[in-house]
């Protein structure tokens, strides 16, 4: 009988202990529910930053090769002996200035002879004109005299041209280059005399990937600099854009004109060409605001005091910020600190508002 009573007593004690534990757990769950409810109703403190918009800037760098704004290699028109070299390497010459003179004695004599023949023809024609009324000169003879005058005038012009061919003149203002000619040298039309460069401006040609075809326009600004350390940049503008793409390199040629009025640059130099293009406007968000999920990148935006997940596609990374393709409005706030606690619809409050 005592054993039975003792057994009932033990089971009652165990039952009481279990009830006490269950009661304690129930109290904890109630307390956690209350805390959770309070946390949901209380806005989460976060740090936000306003979204700005700015254009997407793409910078192209290429290697360019230059030539003078005007450049020519001079050749003689005829063969002959050089009697005068009227320049020194590096001289600045003006348009029409004689560079090299060939032996022209025969041509000068031919010019004088043509001049005398013209005078004779004109005198004969004048005499025929004066005696025309007397009936001693036929109309046919007068016509022949008139034709003789015209032929003599043409021969005189040809003699002047032949004499002009005996000298080589500068076609425009510029600087002359090196020559290997000396007086007494024999030259032919295939003999290069020297070069002349008008380097007040340079034409710089460079290659651009076909991806940017249609995005570059004439008169667009470019900057060029030499490869020397500390070389200053020189400004220029796009002058010509090639009409085709090279199928081997998948690039097209662009030529820019660069001012060289200070004469610091030389034709033939290579340059580092920088071309900046602006394409579209995009929202700008801080790097820390961009989050990644299973469906791609997104940011937590604040709308009417609650967090909202907004998709964002990276367009361009800049210094500390990212251009994104996203439906974010200019001036809209995005969460930069506290993103780990965010979920859709969670009330948030910026620290600046607390």
From TrEMBL:
Q: Which interval of the chain is the signal sequence?
A: none
- At the top level, the lineage of the source is Bacteria
**Residue stretches in coiled coil:** 111-162
Task: Report domain Multidrug resistance protein MdtA-like barrel-sandwich hybrid positions.
Answer: 71-190
Q: Which UniProt keywords apply?
A: Coiled coil
Q: InterPro entries per the record?
A: Beta-barrel_RND_2, MdtA-like_BSH, RND_pump_MFP
Instruction: Determine if Coiled coil is one of this entry's keywords.
Output: yes
Family of the protein in this entry? Belongs to the membrane fusion protein (MFP) (TC 8.A.1) family.
Name the chain's protein. Answer: Efflux RND transporter periplasmic adaptor subunit
């Amino acid at each position: 009988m005592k054993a039975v009573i003792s057994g009932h007593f033990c089971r009652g004690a165990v039952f009481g202990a279990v009830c006490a534990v269950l009661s304690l757990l129930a109290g904890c769950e109630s307390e956690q529910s209350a805390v959770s409810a309070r946390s949901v109703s209380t806005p989460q403190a976060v740090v936000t930053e306003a979204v700005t918009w700015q254009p997407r800037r793409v910078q192209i760098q290429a290697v360019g090769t230059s030539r003078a704004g005007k450049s020519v290699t001079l050749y003689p028109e005829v063969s002959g002996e050089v009697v005068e070299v009227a320049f020194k390497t590096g001289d600045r010459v003006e348009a029409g200035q004689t560079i090299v003179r060939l032996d022209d004695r025969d041509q000068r004599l031919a010019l004088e002879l043509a001049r005398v023949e013209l005078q004779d023809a004109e005198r004969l024609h004048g005499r025929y004109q004066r005696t025309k009324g007397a009936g001693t000169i036929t109309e046919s003879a007068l016509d022949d005299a008139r034709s003789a005058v015209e032929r003599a005038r043409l021969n005189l012009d040809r003699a002047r041209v032949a004499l002009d061919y005996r000298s080589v003149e500068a076609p425009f203002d510029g600087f002359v280059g090196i020559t290997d000619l000396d007086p007494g040298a024999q030259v032919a039309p295939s003999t290069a005399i020297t070069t002349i460069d008008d380097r007040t401006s340079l034409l710089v040609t460079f290659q651009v990937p076909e991806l940017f075809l249609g995005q570059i326009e004439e008169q667009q600004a470019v900057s060029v600099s030499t490869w020397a350390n500390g070389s200053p940049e020189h400004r220029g503008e796009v002058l010509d854009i090639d009409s085709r793409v090279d199928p081997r390199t998948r690039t097209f040629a662009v030529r820019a004109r660069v001012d060289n009025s200070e004469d610091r640059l030389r034709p033939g130099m290579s340059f580092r060409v920088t071309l900046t293009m602006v394409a579209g406007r995009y929202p700008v968000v801080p790097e820390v605001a961009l989050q990644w999920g299973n469906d791609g990148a997104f940011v937590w935006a604040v709308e009417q005091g609650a967090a909202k997940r907004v998709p964002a596609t990276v367009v361009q990374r800049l210094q500390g910020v990212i251009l994104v393709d996203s439906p974010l409005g200019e001036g809209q706030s995005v969460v930069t600190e506290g993103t780990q606690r965010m979920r859709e619809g969670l009330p948030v409050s910026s620290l600046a508002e607390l």
